[in-house]
Amino acid sequence: MQVATPGAFFIQLDVYTEPTQYLVKVHARRTRLSLEIKHQQILVKVPSNCPTDLIESFLRKQQHWIKRAISKSSSVTQFHRNYQSGEPIWFKGEAFTLDIHTQCHGSAVIVNEQDKTISVFLSAKVKHTARQTRKLLRAFYLEQAQLIIPDLLSACEQKVGLHSSSLDFKFYQWRWGCCYQSGKVMFNPLLMAAPIEKIECVIIHELCHLKHMDHSRSFWALNRRFCDQCHKTKQWLKAHHQEVYLPPV
Ligand SMILES: [Zn+2]
Prior knowledge:
alpha/beta; four-stranded mixed beta sheet; 11 strands; binds zinc ion; YgjP-like_metallopeptidase; UTP_pyrophosphatase-like
């Protein structure tokens, strides 16, 4: 019996003429196989010591679902951030328009709530416009997070009855929050792109990890007692990821 190892593999499915690539991730604590389509790629999560035959028959059984899911994900229009004027830029759950001004006296980011624009002013010294725009936008989100999240956190702590020991911020690509054994909580400043109630949902989720450091049933029972919006929040963050994430240039 051949046992699955993590990595990329190919399988010939009846629904496709060419062999299809799939990624395998091995999780020691997992008991069943799971399947998802991530960035139009097939991802199979398996328990350790899972026979490769079992993965292949599982993929064959699910092939019609796989085909539908892949074509659905590819029909979603792809957005590419180029850091140019006119692009959408999210702030507190609203899509603003990015407006870039070059050759200015200094650098700044200004939010105009009235005409829903976020203007980036770049000094005449700036050589790489896109890179500098990204840098200023990240600094803007961090500043907003430092301004708004501490109060949201204490309100959520009151609500949940669990208190963090410290708060910090870190930019991640696919993570929104993080909770450490020490009681420290960490949030992604890009959360400031999301509506406030979604930010609160992420905060409550992380606070619940102070009691349960896993995603066990008891964790979810506790999380649901204070907020049952996790699924919707996750959907929002996923659906807006391309517009929210600020890719390096
Ligand atoms: Zn979690």
